[in-house]
Each structure stands twice: as structure tokens, then as C-alpha cells.
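Quick start: read one record
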Amino acid sequence: MTQSVVIQVGQCGNQIGCCFWDLALREHAAVNQKAIYDEAISSFFRNVDTRVVGDGGSISKGKICSLKARAVLIDMEEGVVNEILQGPLRDVFDSKQLITDISGSGNNWAVGHKVFGSLYQEQILEKLRKSAEHCDCLQCFFIIHSMGGGTGSGLGTFLLKVLEDEFPEVYRFVTSIYPSGEDDVITSPYNSMLAMKELNEHADCVLPIDNQSLFDIISKIDLMVNSGKLGTAIKPKSLVTSSAGAFKKRQEKPFDAMNNIVANLLLNLTSSARFEGSLNMDLNEISMNLVPFPQLHYLVSSLTPLYTLADVNIPSRRLDQMFSDAFSKDHQLIRADPKHSLYLACALMVRGNVQISDLRRNIERLKPSLRFVSWNQEGWKTSLCSVPPVGHSHSLLALANNTCVKPTFIELRERFTRLYRKRAHLHHYLQIEGMEESCFTEALSSLSALIQEYNQLDATKSMPAEELPRLSIAV
């Protein structure tokens, strides 16, 4: 069994990470009721004997003593990390695996990347090496960060180059939260653009997630609950309720519920690595099968069921409806419509009591309505994990390498250009040592080149599928 290390960077990354660890513990507790430290738990947790002083005390088998997350927590402000250390998960995190500062990055990519990157590089490396030493077979680093702030975008992408240099054989999966157009960080287009260049060059797979899409999903829950459709009810102590028990107003942007959806994405993504199934998918298979060209490593994700993930009770979806939902624009975690765009490849990660025949039948049913590139008409990768998420009979995560991600990048470029054309706020970046205006022009060129690659693929949409060459036999 392989292990993975989660690196949580910035406020957003740490809040989502905290939610992920909470859900992971609940999931393993539901499956592993005898509290035995097994391979499934070891993929993301160490078993530590806290009576042993120092760094020793790891227990490879037997009863669970004290679980420690395979995680590194990084933030240049102390607030969120301190909240975690004072909360119910405080014992899950090793204090030796934390890096914090007090000043913050001031919503400036250059401060996070150039200043804090060089200042904390050795500390970060030391903690990454220590995490790797605790693994028997380290397969993947999961980086969780946001694109709009300073620490998440700047230090988060600085990490990628460090990981590439130090652990070139270990996969780098990045979950990136993209800001909405109404983001309250004025400089977020600069931060996102500069971060995109690093993602293009140093990530193996990126799962872009749009804050606006998450907010829209939570708003739909609001409408369903208020309309009373389908006997919808909010579960007690739900993440979508306030401390007073009333449903949060739409304007308040319930970030806990939004983070919960992202955490469930990561939970389903790693399910095959943690549990057994009749058709397992290793994490390295995702990159191998879904990324045909190095730069086109952005995977659009969709989850179904969605609403119950946000702690709302509604009747479970029928199996066939679940597959249809995965390709609907309402279930995508970025604002995109994959059915009207071009697929390079698609992975379906199914959990629960589902048969391989169900999987194949639904693929055959959906194939006529989906457009795949001419040279990869059978570009499907599938997995079946027998353990469903807690509270569900089955679930589906779809990962699509699809040109529908292009509008997100075009919108980012437009927002960046509006600021950059006026050179607004540029001096905040250029006063940082190592930052030059060429950093902006190179980032813009990098994103434009990526958009052009998607344009070239979209131009082939109307082309017929390639006929395979046949062997000519001379008579």
C-alpha cells in the first residue's frame, strides 16, 4: 500500500484540509470499527505511540494508539492554524509539521513566493523530508491552496518547484481554488495569473475549483430547503447551518459547506488508494491516462450526489441518474459545460454497491452525447471502490480532461488585463526583490499559450473519428 502527504497552504488550504481530515477520520471509523491500524488508514495516517519521547514511536500494525495525519500545515498568518490546534482535531497534527509566521503575505503573490519562499525554504524541505521518511512508499503530494491570496498562490506554487526538485518521482496533485469575479481581493487577478505559470510548469495534475460554482451549489441547497421539495431536510449540526440552527443567509457565503464539498472531492479521489474494490485505480493511473500532453493537466471534477455532501437529507439518486448528473453542468466544480465541449479523456471513480456491468452500461448509454477527440474515442478510465461514503449507498466522482476549462482561463486573462493595462497596484509587486515586470508578461504568455492549445483542440470538434489503418495484403 502506498502513502500520500497533504500540504495545506494559506487560510483556504488549511480550512479545506481540516475538513478533509475530519471526514477521513469519520469514514475510517465507520469501516474500521475494531480500531486496528491497517493499510487503508496508513495511506494518510501514522500510528504513533505518544509515550515514546522524540520522533520515534511509529507503530506499523496492531491497535490504533494515536493517529497523526501525514500533513504539513503552512500559513504566514497564525489564525487558522491556531484554530485547528485548539479544535477537536488538535491531536491529529504533529506540532513539528507546522510552519507559521505572523505578518501574512498581504494578498501579494510576490511576498508569498519570493520573500517567504526563500525565507522558509529550508524549513519546508526539512518537514517534507521528515514526512517522506515516515512513508514506506510515498506516491503523491496533495497540495491544497487558493489562487487569489498571497500565501496560497505565492508560497503554494513555490512549493511545487521545491517538490519537483527534491522528489521528482512523487506525483504532485494540486487542488486550486479560483476566485470569483466578485472576489474581495483586488489583486487576485495578478496573484492567480502568476500562480498559473507555476502550475503549468511544475504540477502533474491540477483540479481547478471555482468559488462561484461552490457558492451556486450551496445556494441551490438553500432553494431546495426553503421550497420543501422532495422532503428535503437539513441534518442536525449540519455544516450549512449557523450556530443558532437557522440556515445561513445566502449573502453570508457559507464557507464551511463549500469547503465540505472540496474535502469530499479529495476523499473520493483517494478512495481507491485507501480501500479495496473490484476495479481499483491507482493515483498514478489518473495522470497516466488523463494527461495526454504535459501542459494539459487540468481536470474538471464533478461530484454526485452533491446535496447530501452538504449535510442535507434528500432521497438518494437512482444509479443511472447519478451517471447522468456527473456530466451535467450543475454538478461541475467549475462553471463549465463539458457535454458541449471536447473530451481528451474521462475517469469515473465509483464507490459503493455498483457492478462493473452498471458502469459499462452507463458509459455506453452516455457515449453518443459526449464528444471525444478523434484519436482517443475510447478515452475512459474507470474504478470501483466497494466502500461508499458515510451515509450513502453509492457515489461518483468524474474527472474530465475537457476543453470546457478554457473559459475559466479566458476570464482570468481578461480580469488580469483590465488591471495590468492601467499598471494598477503593480508597484506593490515590483518593490519586492526578485520581481520584475517580465514576471507578469511571461505569466500572461504562458496562459495565452495554454488557451491556444485548447483552441486548437476545439477546432477539431467537427472532425470525424480517425479510421484505424488496415494492413494491406499483397496478392
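The chain has 15 helices and 15 strands.
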